[in-house]
Amino acid sequence: MFLRRFLLVPLLILTACGTPQEQCIRKATGELRHIDHLIAETEANLARGYSYEPETITTHEWEMCVVPGTGTPDRPLQTFMCFRPQTQTVMREVVIDPVVEGRKLENLKAKRKQLLMPANDAVKACKIAYPES
Fold first, then answer.
1. I need a surface site. Which of 4, 27, 40, 125 has the fewest CB within 10 A?
2. At what angle are helices 98-129 and 30-48 packed, to 10 degrees?
């Protein structure tokens, strides 16, 4: 979790560093980029014949534990081995229904067509509002 947050900070800084025009375009095309991602994912699912689904699993690992309240001169540090739960997310293969996945792909492509013209207009407006020198 710490590593994920640590890696997210530079990404946020880089995102904030874009020019006003780039920020405007990124904001205007966000939904379209999301739809494009879903289309690519759905096409890959159809090509493979299955999908991936995240699953959280818990395992236990042996770890050195300390008895609370020990470590003072009158009570020396006491340790023992104990199990600590470790959770992780793994991607599990899931069977898909090609007919349902095909319909989903058609709907996503129709939604993309619907979003394309407004996104193009918004990009043009961004270029006019924030010309780059």
1. 4
2. 150
